[in-house]
Amino acid sequence: MTPRMAVPIVLSLLAAGAGAEPPAVPVLRYEAPANFYHSAITPPDGYESPEVRASVQVYPFRRFSGDLASQFRQTLLRDWIHPMYREPSVAGQPKLGTDTIAGAQQVYTAMFLDGVGHPHVRIVIVVAGLAALVDVSAATNEAWQRAAPAIFPMLQSMRVETAAPPPSTAEGPGAAGPAVAGLYMGYKAKYTTNLNLGPAYGTYTSTLHFYVFSAAGRVYRCYDTIDVPGNDPERFDFDAAQRRDPGNSGRYTVKGGKLYMEIGEKPDTVVVDAPSGGRLKVYDVLYVRN
To answer: Where in the chain is the domain with CATH 3.40.1000.10?
Structure first.
């Protein structure tokens, strides 16, 4: 039951050379599943059914080494999956296959049941030494059938396009920094694991979430509480935050009215509209500057 994909198109990756523009990067485009809840927690880009326990996670392109097809056959790239959605084990033999997606060079697919009987479809899309991953799962076969009418149009809409690489955050935001700098507060869904059942089981609750930006280009995000003396970002200890919580520390820049953040060690790249009037919207969450 491998999902069929869109009609192939040609993907042109620009060659980098002396004086040339930076190479374009592949981006996986798709239509979001209708009426699904879009998680503000990224990466991955997640969608949850409002009716049954079924979800889709889309992991952006990342570089890989070695024989990816062999790795996928052997491990299903389980280590690429966020711990919240990672299967504890696999029951039986996965049904492996290949498919086509517009703009992709290779597409590998797998259908399998995890160790507790949850059905999964996992799709790996390969372009020029980079791979994106789409993971679909449901709690039961009945949940799978009910969610499929929303999920399969999304899978069929997938195509690979090219986009200009994001600007470097290394030099900071320059003159735009003072307009961005500040402590921003919003309410964001936070996933809490059910310790009795494991990481795949839990609930979302709306919780305080913060971003703090320095004028020089540093950013830190966290849930629940943050110590920013006098709400002055220049008095916040970004170095201590980096040592304590590198996964939520990073840098930002501003270009063309967009705010580009690179947060974490991988890193997580976030691109949103630059703050305006003390308001910042990151995906579906509105933050207000204190």
So the answer is: 25-163
Torsion of CA 255, 261, 267, 269, to 10 degrees: -70
25-47: per-residue pLDDT in tens? 899 999 999 989 887 666 788 99
Question: What distances in angstroms separate CA 280 from CA 140, 225, 255, one per listed residue?
Answer: 38, 18, 15
Rounded Cα–Cα distance for residues 122 and 124 (Å):
7
Tell me whether the omega of the peptide bond preceding residue 173 falls within 30 degrees of 0, making it cis: no
Amino acid at 18: A
What homologous superfamily is domain 174-289 in, according to CATH? Uncharacterised protein family Atu4866 (2.40.128.290)
Pick the CATH number of 25-163 from 3.30.450.20, 3.40.1000.10, 3.40.50.970, 3.40.50.2000: 3.40.1000.10
- pTM assigned to the model: 0.64
The pLDDT tens digits of the residues spanning 55-70 come to 999 999 998 999 999 9
Specify the domain boundaries for CATH 2.40.128.290 within the chain. 174-289
